[in-house]
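We emphasize that the prediction below concerns an isolated chain of 147 residues; any contacts that depend on oligomerization or on bound cofactors are therefore not represented. The input was used exactly as deposited, without trimming of termini.
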Amino acid sequence: MPVSRNDEWIQLAALSERDEIFFTPEFLVIMGELGWEAKAFVGHLLGLWHDPFEHTLDYWGNAKVTRDQPGKPDGDLEGPQDVVEHWATIWAGKGKFESPTHQAGIGLGLGPEWYRDILRAKLVSLQIPKRLLVEYREALKSALPKE
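Result of the prediction step, given as a token string:
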């Protein structure tokens, strides 16, 4: 079924009054039981369905060339979030015809701050129909080894 304006849309993350990025309560209700796998899913949405992007939100405050978002990410799904600096520094130094293609930038001389802020903006603007989140969660749970 195609997406519809009649779907129940879930905002994945939002900015607090202090500009910290948090996953929304609605997202946590649906995806929270997945723990790190929920963050990996969002990382894929920010990048590509490519393994390295599942680590886009594995950030604990070790940026070298860009400023961090307010808050202290500690890896907790319910705590402040930020995106890793890794992709921003790679894309900033690359043109649009790079190989492998997931490392290509846009070749306009924009710095790592710009790329990292684009990832943050994507994070706080993502909305997904609830049914797609539930379908993903259930598919992942059935694929995980039974305890």
